[in-house]
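Quick note —
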Amino acid sequence: MNRVEISFQDISAPLWADALEAFCLKALGALEIGDWELSVLLCGRETIKELNCRYRGIDQPTDVLSFELGVESPENGGRYLPGDIIISLDNLRENSIYFRIPEDEELRRLLVHGILHLKGMDHKTNEQNEPMLVLQEEILKKLEGNRILPEKTQNGRGEW
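Predicted structure written out below.
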């Protein structure tokens, strides 16, 4: 059975954290992954910029980072610790505006993208025919009805 640990830095815990955990578990199931202990950190622009600079040498914010650990944890009953996914909610919002898609769709895409990187997949470009990106879209299609963010708020956007 998979487990998901969600944490927050520079932001308050959103009301939809449980839905995010549930989506991650469904994504892992759709990929036929078992016994993972996945870590997801939601943060603001400054945290992800600092991490991107420190670990990738790129002094700018990004939307998602994946840090692969890939070890079994004897103290956790032999569970697999794939690593960490870090998502900037600020950059997620900007992406949703830029790509003209709902914030919920972008959040789901970033989560699946991060999971695939932790699974050992990679892509050289962002072209739609990249095998990792093809699989990403297949998984998102399978999980189409599984929302994370609330449908609407007064301003028509997902509630943070």
